[in-house]
Amino acid sequence: MHTDFGDNHPLRSVAKDPILVYQMDEHSEGIALFKLPLPMLQQYQDELAHPHRHDHYTCFFLEEGTITTCIDFQPVTINKTSFLLSYPGQIHQVGSAPPCKGWILGFDAKLIDETVRNLLEQSLSSVTLLTLDEREQEWFRNMLILIDESLHKNKTVIFHHKLVQTLLNGFIYRVAAIFQVQLNDRIRDYSSRNLEMTRKFRQLLNQQVLICKQPSSYAQQLNVSTSHLNDTVKSVTGFSVTYHIQQSILTEAQRLLVYTDLSVQEISTRLGFEDPKYFIRLFGKGKGLSPAKFRKNNT
């Protein structure tokens, strides 16, 4: 399956997973920028409203209008005072998207500075929705115009790719700076050491949850005892390491139950459980109903 959003917007959809995945085209520079309103996107509105993943980061910045969407079962509203950054692998399902003015920027994770990527991936929240003041809105608007011009004009000039990547990094550095300031306002009561360990745990969890389900495995990678890791994570988030592991597993299970036709046994195997009955008990304990009942209630 292939969807081409235009010569200047190299995205394609690939049904390589039970859930549709939008990828960067292999011939792109790892960046796709859409200026809204874009008539071509309206042709694919039904397809875009269907649950899907991205294999890249995606930013949503609106100058006029409102978009309502759902990311991993969390409702999100985007307007001109907000900026949404979604992560690779998250499930998107657009609720309503009337004609809006703004931008959607997608970019490959390998294009951004590792330090910034680590900061974003260690987020304590699964949805990164920033609040922008008028000065920040103007800055993002101007930067996106520069990226757009650099992407689509004079592609043959010397240093074209370097220029685009430099502008992208500047854009992401500003996102990270605002993210850090707003994060600090929310977590000022926690020690920096505890926050750092919790962030690193969250990053490892996002990367390894399907193959690493024991708290001791994460503690070993972080060179601390299991009890110390658990106490630290609980002091920052209010929940134990085991709880976070189970919630990550349950989130992926919910995605597969609602957005695919895989059987419960197939989902159990995909999530790394040898015994489907154990998975069913775990899901029931975490969500209060069986996987089959959850699927019936949400499809």
Automatic annotation (TrEMBL):
<dbReference type="InterPro" id="IPR009057">
    <property type="entry name" value="Homeodomain-like_sf"/>
</dbReference>
<dbReference type="InterPro" id="IPR037923">
    <property type="entry name" value="HTH-like"/>
</dbReference>
<dbReference type="Pfam" id="PF02311">
    <property type="entry name" value="AraC_binding"/>
</dbReference>
<protein>
    <submittedName>
        <fullName>Helix-turn-helix domain-containing protein</fullName>
    </submittedName>
</protein>
<dbReference type="GO" id="GO:0003700">
    <property type="term" value="F:DNA-binding transcription factor activity"/>
</dbReference>
<keyword id="KW-0804">Transcription</keyword>
<feature type="domain" description="HTH araC/xylS-type">
    <location>
        <begin position="185"/>
        <end position="297"/>
    </location>
</feature>
<dbReference type="InterPro" id="IPR018060">
    <property type="entry name" value="HTH_AraC"/>
</dbReference>
<dbReference type="InterPro" id="IPR003313">
    <property type="entry name" value="AraC-bd"/>
</dbReference>
<dbReference type="GO" id="GO:0043565">
    <property type="term" value="F:sequence-specific DNA binding"/>
</dbReference>
<keyword id="KW-0805">Transcription regulation</keyword>
<keyword id="KW-0238">DNA-binding</keyword>
<dbReference type="Pfam" id="PF12833">
    <property type="entry name" value="HTH_18"/>
</dbReference>
